[in-house]
Amino acid sequence: MRFLFSFFFFSYAILLVGNPVEAQVLCLGGECSNIPSEYQLLGNFAEPVFDRIYTNGFLRSMGENAVLQNLNSNQSGGSNIERYRLGLGYTISQGREKARDFYYENSELRTLPKKGAAASPSLSFTANLGQWLDGAFAKQWNLTTHFFPYEFNEANIPFVKIRNTDVRGRVFNSGAVLRYFPIDSGFSFGMGVFQTNQDLYLSAYDRRPTQFRIDGDKRRWIGQNDLYYQSRIVSGSLDLKYNYTIGFFSIIPGIGFVYNHGYTAIHASRFAAISTMANPDDFGSVPSAIGIRLSTRHNHRSGFGYGSLGLQISMGKFSFVTELMAGKEIQSINLSLQLQF
């Protein structure tokens, strides 16, 4: 017997690819009585979205991209600043780890990026500790801090161009690096602490009904899709750099290591009207709708090493600097203009 109105709600955790996946499904309308079981329903939606898309490797790569971008935004350089320095720059980071077989049940979110990426401007300030403390030893230390609260949308970010999708987000990264310069050696040693905060929102609606299956039966649905990405990571870093200068041109190679503690989380939701089991094009005879919420989280409790190469052109009090950082699966580049005073 077909019920004119039926309702069901399921909420539990599924273990997929090592991630705890939370899934909730809400169905309203008479067609809900034709959906066989929660296992088949949640298996149909949770497995494609998270098992095939957001693996541990991809979530880790997205978080490490954000961290490397934050490190590169610091602009601490490799030369001892005698007094103070201000820097304004822009940093981009991208990973090699890809999402696997991306699709969101033929909805508009199938066009989401397959690679992790991060980008934002940053403002840095460097001070020689000898300006605040007495003694020759204090003059061998620089302290560089940076931050930039940055809200973006598709119009002002270079790495997210998604057709028919609303994109917005915010970045609030900050950090501080204490750098020691042994006298006349060219080498410097840096110790830093960083806070990486990133949020990305994507929203799209289906322009036409698309097909999906429930227990082998073809259905169609049309609705709204939303995805929310979030990183909250605290990092500590150690690095070694060498400054080689010829006239106004400097080459600054280096190596470093960073340890991360925090998380990267993904939340996806879809709310859609569903067709009848008898006719995939019939949305009106038995009005029914389904809502699906899925979320997963990767905890960062590990570190990675990286190499860096900085190039600096100095013209009086001004300097133009670019620095490339690269890990095993990620790379970042920073361009900045700096003023000493």
Automatic annotation (TrEMBL):
InterPro entries cross-referenced by the UniProt entry: Lsa36-like
Superkingdom of origin: Bacteria
Protein name: Uncharacterized protein
Organism: Leptospira bandrabouensis
